[in-house]
Design a protein that fits this description.
The structure holds two protein chains of two kinds.
Chain A: H1 16-33, E1 47-52, H2 57-69, E2 73-78, H3 90-100, E3 104-109, H4 114-119, E4 125-131, H5 137-151, E5 158-162, H6 169-178, E6 184-188, H7 196-199, E7 207-209, H8 213-217, E8 222-225, H9 231-234, H10 241-248, H11 252-255, E9 264-265, H12 278-281, H13 288-307
Parallel strand pairs in A: 1-2, 1-3, 3-4, 5-6, 5-8, 6-7, 8-9
Helix pairs in contact in A: 1-5, 1-13, 2-13, 5-6, 5-13
Chain B: H1 3-8, E1 12-15, E2 17-22, H2 35-44, E3 47-52, H3 63-76, E4 80-85, H4 99-105, E5 109-110, H5 120-130, E6 137-139, H6 144-147, E7 152-153, H7 156-161, E8 165-166, H8 168-185, E9 189-191, H9 197-208, E10 213-217, H10 219-223, H11 265-277, E11 282-283, H12 292-295, H13 312-321, H14 327-334, H15 336-342, E12 351-361, E13 380-390, E14 393-397
Parallel strand pairs in B: 2-3, 3-4, 4-5, 6-9, 7-8, 9-10, 10-11
Antiparallel strand pairs in B: 1-12, 12-13, 13-14
Helix pairs in contact in B: 2-3, 3-4, 5-8, 8-9, 9-11
The chains are: A alpha/beta, B alpha/beta.
Chain lengths: 315, 409
């Protein structure tokens, strides 16, 4: 298929073919990353601006590595050390980004929808690297790629997403990516951390809510644990972290309720001992490190599809 | 031009509209609106009388400020402006303002709009004290603990967009509280910008029990749904019979951010049902103009509010044309309804002429309001005020000549 999108803001309106195209391209990028010299020229002369208004070392470094591997120039505008911290408005920042003339703006922002605001006001291609509770498209795509690597075709596979779904852009993007590929999703976690509409009969297509994690995991093909922000307890949404861990923490005993070998994933950074036991996080089922590696390849794929010239030959 | 002439030409001539709820922003926020610009926008929308909410800076909580608003409005020579004063001093929700003195200075009603009176005991005392002169309290009914940091309706769209929601219950628990306290005190109470099915049901029941409760709904809550935040631009009556449409606008557009939030289709239907059966007394704009600096920001940081005076008639007629309400009922809700709420009479020398079929396009330059914050920008609407008379004096004329004469429709 021909790639026609200018921005990657959310995958919620993507066709199955578009998701497949990114995953196929990701495969090619994995090959580039396995070369002795990890470098390809398709973004030579292009400038990728990394605009991280909310701190995130992992995602930023992943994008930076992806852009450099494809020979792009990379400019960082991060929260610390830039004017964003001094209260500069997003509108001003966008005008600056526009004047700087980057080809791609990769942005992370604490406000849901901020990438739409930027995409409307700049000529650059915008990649959403996470906005508020809304979306984290590259995480959804890398999770899909990683699950496919472990399970093959995702049709009829059932994946559990457990934790703070309400405040999770990862959960939303995982749903938007995995469901079109044929998977069904069982959401689990405290009712206070689930969007109310999704608990009350209006869950997205392909998903169901099961508060009892043991039941959710029974016979599942994989599980994605979400990071629990400790401030949820202070907000009155949880009695205690101890109780959360007891009821919704991923333990060896719980993950063994899934099909044999069913993988465990986590977007990181993990609170070991809260949402996931160290033994599970680093156990044989864990794909957490592979998620990180695949993340670079997925981000390369998107950069390539958005602004790359069509050659992957080594220079 | 007299009204017979205009009627003969095929225009719909009605009493001037009365808006019980508009924000004119002066004093304090003159970059968003002034009394003069707001009153001009009102006339273009057919409103010959508007009530100005007191959440200015300073808030209208002293007789001198009430007099100042009246003087500035008079100098403007557009729509009549009736000042609403605050219920509590500085709108701080702690102690009552000098309600009787404010009334004597010309305050038509009292409201801390923008916020409810959170303290139930103070709310009770406000209503009790108002019985001195049978004053009118206009309440923005919302449980602020439940609405918390919400920025849109809590439901399937907020879940999808990852935005914190304001549940219907935030309005419905407040309405239930307010009705109970109105019953306790026997006072008049007007509940403004009602937006949910449950609130309509409570008010219907309270009225059936003979309580002196009135309410209004806004044109935007009558026409738009929560889907607008997600990028839809379909009016409620265009949504009948089919599911989710492809978005027509970019999602997270802050012009759709308003408090109370745009609700679900079921709520919109309930507002129209309330209008038809008389539960809803008035249509009020909650005209909330904002300078672009307060709207051209991230969705969660943007100010709440829609600039509404000039699009109100077209939105209401949209529902009328779709058969959701007959035209006379809708016009009454813009004229005799709000007059009854306020306890004022409909003046013979305030009247307007409407071309119900005129098409016009909402554009920043065509709006007299300084607030261009409406999700209708660029949208073609039907129904336009072409002539407005205040106190027997023609104060607005627009598009009369181009209007279609009778018989050629």
């Amino acid at each position: 298929m021909r790639w026609s999108r200018r921005h990657v803001l959310d995958t919620d309106d993507w066709s199955n073919e578009e998701i497949e195209a990114v995953l196929d391209t990701t495969g090619a990028m994995v090959e580039v990353l396995s070369r002795p010299v990890r470098r390809a020229p398709p973004l030579r002369g292009r400038t990728v601006v990394l605009f991280f208004a909310e701190s995130s070392t992992r995602t930023r470094v992943s994008f930076e590595l992806a852009a450099r591997t494809l020979s792009a120039d990379v400019v960082n505008i991060s929260a610390s050390g830039s004017s964003v911290e001094k209260g500069e408005s997003l509108y001003d920042t966008v005008r600056t980004l526009q004047a700087l003339g980057g080809d791609v703006v990769v942005m992370r922002h604490s406000s849901s929808g901020a990438p739409y605001f930027v995409s409307e006001r700049t000529d650059a291609a915008v990649i959403n690297a996470g906005d508020g509770w809304h979306a984290h498209p590259t995480q959804g795509l890398l999770d899909a790629y990683t699950l496919r690597g472990a399970l093959g075709d995702l049709a009829k596979k059932r994946i559990v997403i457990v934790g703070d779904v309400a405040h999770s852009r990862v959960a939303r993007s995982d749903i938007n990516t995995l469901v079109p590929l044929g998977a069904t999703i069982t959401l689990s976690g405290p009712p206070t951390l689930m969007p109310s509409a999704w608990r009350c009969g209006q869950a997205p297509a392909g998903t169901t809510y099961e508060p009892d994690l043991d039941r959710a995991l029974e016979g599942a093909d994989g599980v994605i644990a979400l990071r629990l922000q400790k401030e949820r307890q202070e907000g009155g949404l949880l009695p205690s972290l101890r109780e959360y861990t007891r009821v919704w923490g991923l333990t060896e005993a719980r993950v063994s309720l899934m099909r044999p070998g069913a993988p465990v994933m986590h977007p990181g950074p993990m609170n070991e001992g809260v949402e996931i036991d160290a033994a599970v996080a680093h156990g044989t089922r864990s794909l957490v490190e592979r998620q990180v590696t695949n993340g670079v390849a997925v981000r390369m794929a998107l950069l390539y599809l958005l602004v790359g010239t069509p050659t992957l030959e080594a220079s | 031009m007299d009204r017979r002439e205009l009627e003969a030409k095929g225009y719909l001539v009605t009493p001037g509209f009365i808006d019980v709820h508009a924000h004119l922003r002066e004093p304090g926020f003159e970059d968003s609106e002034t009394i003069a610009s707001g009153a001009r926008a009102a006339l273009r929308g057919g409103f010959t009388t508007i009530c100005a909410m007191p959440n200015t800076e300073p808030a209208i909580d002293s007789p001198g400020l009430v007099a100042e608003v009246i003087a500035r409005a008079r100098a403007g020579g557009a729509a009549r402006v009736l000042p609403i004063a605050t219920i509590t001093r500085a709108r701080a929700g702690r102690e009552l303002a000098d309600l009787v003195e404010l009334s004597a200075a010309g305050a038509v009603a009292f409201s801390d709009d923008g916020a409810p009176v959170d303290d139930a005991r103070l709310f009770r005392h406000a209503l009790e004290y108002m019985r001195t002169k049978d004053l009118l309290l206009i309440e923005h009914a919302q449980d602020t603990q439940l609405s918390a940091k919400g920025v849109m309706n809590e439901g399937v769209v907020s879940a999808r967009l990852g935005l914190p929601g304001i549940p219907n219950a935030a309005e419905e628990t407040a309405v239930a509280r307010d009705i109970a306290i109105a019953e306790l005190t026997g006072a008049r109470l007007h509940l403004t910008h009602i937006s949910t099915r449950g609130a309509i049901a409570s008010i219907r029941d309270a009225k059936a029990r003979g309580l002196r409760i009135t309410c209004d709904v806004t044109p935007h809550h009558l026409s738009m749904t929560e889907d607008w935040v997600g990028g839809s631009r379909e009016f409620a009556w265009e949504r009948e019979g089919h599911g989710r449409e492809a978005p027509l606008a970019t999602p997270f557009d802050s012009s759709t951010k308003v408090n109370p939030p745009l609700r679900s289709l079921s709520d919109v239907r309930a507002l129209w049902e309330g209008l038809v059966d008389g539960t809803v007394d008035a249509i009020a704009t909650d005209h909330a103009p904002h300078a672009s600096i307060r709207k051209d920001v991230e969705f969660d940081l943007a100010a709440f509010g829609i600039s509404g005076l000039e699009t109100a008639l077209s939105l209401v007629l949209g529902g009328v044309n779709a058969g959701w309400c007959d035209r006379d009922t809708a016009i009454r809700a813009l004229t005799t309804g709000p007059a009854h709420v306020l306890g004022i009479s409909v003046r013979d020398d305030d009247w307007i002429a409407i071309d119900p079929d005129a098409e016009w396009t909402v554009a920043t330059e065509s709006l007299a309001s300084m607030g261009k914050n409406t999700p209708l920008l660029g949208r073609a609407l039907r129904g336009k005020v072409v002539y407005a008379v205040v106190g027997g004096e023609a104060r607005y004329e627009g598009g009369l000549r181009g209007a279609t004469p009778v018989g050629s429709r």
